[in-house]
């Protein structure tokens, strides 16, 4: 039977501040530990794998963990989705994407407004759910899209679907993507459609991310070049600008992302399945919704045995994250944290992986497992798993 590797990214489920967290204003952030302390969770399956055995997890340890466990630090000096996934896939950024804590300069906005033939609202750092309710009525009245950013490298465009239909909004995002290159390079332009009326607006699931093409080789490129089927589930295709991917299922939430992953496993599809589960971040972390965050983790934990049962004897599952987004802190932004690393397979011996120096060790391990070779960035931990 062929070998397969599966990475499931629990988007934003960090496991404690990195040593340089102060540079990002994230001292005290611990997405998993703080959430567990405020709202104890029934995540018995994750804990049985060894989630609580990871250093400084702040959760109960298992006496006999079933998976290899550890945590990884991010070398790229950032805390955004793109840099986290890129580094995980073996591409560390020497210079991180640019951020705009004071909003975007007038030169950029003038260029954007001229090309979309209308003015804009906002242009500030804001919570997406807050700003659409603050400016939604004015947007509906004027037709001007709402522009906002965060501590991350993002240019977000919010628009009511009945005022600016999603396809038109996506066109605006493509215009912004062309502008925000070179010295103004932004990691992602994000379409944020919403619906509602009279100051009561809610985002829809028609979000779309417009990333930049990876600036170097990723493990996805390597695997597809070697004829492997690379399956992207969720927003993975956006993060990698559709490169190095052979099969796509652009699911929009955790439930459909989990179900899609299970279906690919059951059907024996994919040599490498790369899944992003976005709800932890988009619905709960950024909204400081502790209860929602905890419930989402419990739901994933409930579905975990089904994922594992669908795997074959030679499949390797890696459960991890891309950054933090602690719902218990005042900030609604991502947080600079370690990410958990759980590695399970029927032939994997449960060992401690300790602290991996870079997310890239995850990607290097996938390449090692599937191709039996090294990668440009990162060091494989496959040899530590004592696979039978």
Write the layout of secondary structure elements.
Layout (H helix, E strand, L loop, with lengths): L3 E7 L20 H8 L5 H6 L18 E5 L8 H8 L17 H11 L4 E5 L2 H15 L3 E4 L4 E7 L5 H14 L8 E10 L2 E4 L4 E4 L7 H7 L4 E4 L2 H4 L7 E3 L4 H13 L5 E6 L1 H7 L4 H20 L5 E6 L18 E6 L7 E5 L3 H12 L17
Parallel strand pairs: 1-11, 1-12, 2-14, 3-4, 5-6, 9-10, 9-11
Antiparallel strand pairs: 2-13, 4-5, 6-7, 6-8, 12-13
Helix pairs in contact: 4-6, 9-11, 10-11
Keywords:
single chain; alpha/beta; Alpha-Beta Plaits; 2 domains; 8-stranded mixed β-sheet; 12 helices; 32% helix
Written description of the protein model:
The chain has 388 residues and is an alpha/beta fold. It has 2 domains: 4-93 and 215-385, Alkaline Phosphatase, subunit A, CATH 3.40.720.10; 106-210, 2-Layer Sandwich (Alpha-Beta Plaits), CATH 3.30.70.1250. 32% of the residues lie in helices and 20% in strands. The strands form 2 sheets. An 8-stranded mixed beta sheet has the order 10-9-11-1-12-13-2-14, with helices on both faces. Strands 3, 4, 5, 6, 7 and 8 form a 6-stranded mixed beta sheet that branches. Strand 3 (121-125), helix 5 and strand 4 form a beta-alpha-beta unit. Helix 4 (106-116) packs across helix 6 (166-179), helix 9 packs parallel to helix 11 (290-309) and helix 10 (279-285) packs antiparallel against helix 11. The chain is globular. The mean pLDDT is 96.
Highest CATH level, the class of the largest domain: Alpha Beta
User: How big a fraction of the residues is strand?
Assistant: 15-25%
What is the rounded distance between the termini? 15 Å
Mean of all residue-level pLDDT scores: 96
